[in-house]
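subagent[fold] <- orchestrator: predict structure for attached chain, return tokens only, no commentary.
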Amino acid sequence: MVTTVSRHRAGLRRAAFWSSLVAAPALVGAAAARLFGTRRAGLVAGGLTAAGLGGLRWQLQRLFNDEPDHELERRIGRLEIRRLAPRVEARTTLDIEDFERGLELGFERLFDYLSGGNRTGERIAMTSPVTAIHRLGFTVCFAMPPGRTRPSLPLPDHEGVLLCEAPRQRIAVLRFSGRYDADNVGAHESELLRLVAEAGLQPVGPIVFAGYDPPTTLPILRRNEVWVELER
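subagent[fold] -> orchestrator:
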């Protein structure tokens, strides 16, 4: 039976962050109060430190999400060749051609499932990345949290959301930053295929877009990827 396995211990990162959110402002505030000789300076410095850490957490949300496991096989210039572990996914397909609209609507439908739009009202933790395939419609997927099997997950309320088992895959990956729009993604899809051909590799599936960050993350800080499955 397929079970999603996490690539890193996101829970430890979350615990470490919340510990630092308490400790770091207190330490900085105490140092500032001692340096400037006023309690006000300590409060201001501590508050600014807490705000800075909160902003960092907000912009780098992906670091605190679980990510499905994969093994890095090798690098070929800008390409990464990975082996994805089997995983359980929630998927939805929309009859839509516009890339940005399809990504938005698919994300909203799956997020509703994670937020309790299911038969038991369970809230399910979000993982990174959200993936999208634009072929015969627009299919958007979320990997389910570590340890979850398909039978252990609640059935979706929306009939367009399906729970599926994704097999082990060997993929070529190109990473980039910037906006989630058709022009940016399309340009990197073309670049991915060019690099794959130059490396003498054989693609066997459609190109997949993978977005690791929410829309609130500054485009320059976003981790985006395009994938294509390879012959094993």
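orchestrator: received. Logging for downstream: Confidence is low (pLDDT under 50) at residues 52-59. Helices lie at 10-36, 39-59, 99-114, 182-198.
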